[in-house]
Amino acid sequence: MTALAVASGLLAANTVQAQGTTIITDFHNFNLSARYANWDPVNYTFSPPVITSGPISYRVVAQGYGSGAYNLPTPLNVPGATQIQLNFTINSTTPAIWMGPNFDLSDGTHQVQYLSYNNYSGPGTYTVTAPIGSLDTTDITAFNLEFDPAGYGVAAPYDITYNSLALLTPVPEPGSVALLAIGALGCLIARRRVRAS
């Protein structure tokens, strides 16, 4: 029984946790609260951006750095969230880019550590996941989408479709809970046998 308890406890401790997903937006009929740089329909530098808000996604065709902010109608409240996850589709070839999203907080600061610089060779669909550290989600007042061609340069337009933005929260898998219960039961039985002898 003692061996069973120890083995069960070790298995429970080493089981990977699943992720609970809270969708911030699925970009359905989505519109940014403000658009900047080359996503701005008036004050762009290179060519007019073409932004399509559709029933299933939000698509941006532009050239050069562009960004936009979305003011949340109500504060987020996702206790225990540890990661942010953005799913997007690159519809054109884009070797190296900076990708958002970032958060605006209630104290007026702007969190930029969630940007990902990577080689998104495109076309293709990608998921970027990044830690949010000790950030309290109730402090988030807005998120910002940012796209910086960086090494890709500004010579060629890019075409990106935003699919979903979510917060991830670790949750124990059912198997972990079951193993933990077996381990606890084994420890209890082993303890009672020791007392009886």
Task: Describe this protein's structure.
The protein has about 200 residues and is an alpha+beta fold. The chain folds into 2 domains: about 1-15 and about 175-195; about 20-170, Jelly Rolls (Sandwich), CATH 2.60.120. About 20% of the residues lie in helices and about 40% in strands. Strands 2, 5, 7, 8, 9, 10 and 12 form a 7-stranded antiparallel sheet that branches. Strands 1, 3, 4, 6, 11 and 13 form a 6-stranded antiparallel sheet that branches. A hairpin with a 4-residue loop joins strand 8 (about 100-105) and strand 9 (about 110). Helix 1 (about 1-15) packs antiparallel against helix 2. The radius of gyration is 23 Å and the shape is elongated. About 25% of the residues are buried.
